């Protein structure tokens, strides 16, 4: 497993390593998606609050409770990050250890995308595409394993489905 992951990581990051601008683009994309999601969530809350204040609470409570539950579970699992477990040079630098599974960035992006989907199919799909970009950048960046982002997506999707039940 060790050699396989290291070789796989080297293979998927080789095109980025050959072109320094590609590494910069990956890092910018990672930060861009994070900020777009934060702004999108604020816009969603303002939009819902201005149009019908009485239905605002699920858009706050469901993501918030999900975030706290995911944080609790991930702290208990305390899975190592790829750069801790293997001799790889990550393209996105983090000083954090553990708490890799599930990805909280991808979870949050997915829940926010589900909030967007509840309001608009078009904007929900755009936000889901950005969520996938976030997941890909986190894996290529070396801060998460594929299983971490997949688990984060699934948890975020399930949490987001509760918006449609309320």
UniProtKB/TrEMBL annotation:
<keyword id="KW-0472">Membrane</keyword>
<dbReference type="Pfam" id="PF01569">
    <property type="entry name" value="PAP2"/>
</dbReference>
<protein>
    <submittedName>
        <fullName>Phosphatase PAP2 family protein</fullName>
    </submittedName>
</protein>
<keyword id="KW-0812">Transmembrane</keyword>
<feature type="transmembrane region" description="Helical">
    <location>
        <begin position="55"/>
        <end position="73"/>
    </location>
</feature>
<keyword id="KW-1133">Transmembrane helix</keyword>
<feature type="transmembrane region" description="Helical">
    <location>
        <begin position="21"/>
        <end position="49"/>
    </location>
</feature>
<feature type="transmembrane region" description="Helical">
    <location>
        <begin position="149"/>
        <end position="165"/>
    </location>
</feature>
<dbReference type="InterPro" id="IPR036938">
    <property type="entry name" value="PAP2/HPO_sf"/>
</dbReference>
<dbReference type="InterPro" id="IPR000326">
    <property type="entry name" value="PAP2/HPO"/>
</dbReference>
<feature type="transmembrane region" description="Helical">
    <location>
        <begin position="121"/>
        <end position="143"/>
    </location>
</feature>
<feature type="domain" description="Phosphatidic acid phosphatase type 2/haloperoxidase">
    <location>
        <begin position="56"/>
        <end position="164"/>
    </location>
</feature>
């Amino acid at each position: 497993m060790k050699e396989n992951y290291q070789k796989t990581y080297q293979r998927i990051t080789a095109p980025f390593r050959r072109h320094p601008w590609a590494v910069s683009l990956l890092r910018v994309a990672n930060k861009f998606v994070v900020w777009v999601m934060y702004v999108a969530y604020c816009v969603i809350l303002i939009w819902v609050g201005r149009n019908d204040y009485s239905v605002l609470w699920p858009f706050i409570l469901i993501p918030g409770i999900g975030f706290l539950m995911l944080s609790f579970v991930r702290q208990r699992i305390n899975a190592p990050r790829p750069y801790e477990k293997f001799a790889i040079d990550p393209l996105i630098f983090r000083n954090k250890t553990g708490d890799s599974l599930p990805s909280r960035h991808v979870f949050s992006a997915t829940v926010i995308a589900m909030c967007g989907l509840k309001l608009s199919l078009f904007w929900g799909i755009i936000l889901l595409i950005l969520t996938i970009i976030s997941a890909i950048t986190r894996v290529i960046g070396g801060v998460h394993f594929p299983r971490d982002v997949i688990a984060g997506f699934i948890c975020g999707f399930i949490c987001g489905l509760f918006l449609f039940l309320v």
